[in-house]
Write a structure and sequence with these properties.
This protein is mainly beta. The chain contains two helices and twelve strands. It starts with a helix and ends with a strand.
Length: 181
Amino acid sequence: MKRVVAIALFLLGIGLFESCWNCGGRTDYTLTEITNDMWTLEAPYLESLDTAKYNELAIRFNLAWSPVTFIVNSSAVYACGEHEFYYITSLDSINVSSSKVYNQQQDKLSMFNIRGTGDTLSINVIKEHFASYAPFYVDSSLEILLNSPPQQKDTFQFTFQFFDTDGNIFQTTTNPVIITP
């Protein structure tokens, strides 16, 4: 009898342990919004009509990701893996416009470099930065820098449009700032 009770308690314990064990799994994220802010080393946030040298100005894109699916593996019997994060929004093109002629570069994307890498802003760089699989975190920002001076000191405002494969357009426009060569 003791043996039957011990086996029953053991099986009950395994059942409870199994039902409470969560490990691994997957979360899918979709892009909901893109905003921006601008900064320099001297000013952590630029207001409208502030002045900045072109080579000190940074534009930060802030991407808002929302989880749309959350799957958890629940098993003490099977080996546990890490929880995986996937971006299911796939950006496939970018358009940049300026309120005024900035300089003679025809391709507006080539006016910007990715901060930290020096790569020219392009959809391939964006796709690589926000690859479909992000094992440890969901990245929510990307910073770009101007790589050439304006023709002259003037007030500029840039509009960035990001297009995804589902036909959505995410648009963000910078505050107007005075940019100097």
